[in-house]
Amino acid sequence: MDGAERAAVLLLTLGEQAAAEIMKHMSPKEVQSIGEAMASLGGVPKETVKDVLDSFCDSIDEQTSLGVGNEEYLRNVLVSALGQDKAGNLIDRILLGRHSKGLEALKWMEPRAVAEIIRLEHPQIIAIVLSYLDSDQAGEVLQALPERLRPDVLMRIASLDGIQPSAIHELDEILEKQFTGSAGNVRSSSVGGVKTAANILNFMDSSLEAQILDQVRETDPEMGQAIEDLMFVFDNLVDVDDRGIQALLREVSSENLILALKGADDAVKEKIFKNMSKRAAEMLRDDLEAKGPVKLSEVEAAQKEVLAVARRMAESGEISLGGKGGDEYI
Question: Which of 80, 105, 144, 147 is most buried as measured by Cβ atoms within 10 A of its Cβ?
Answer without folding.
Answer: 105
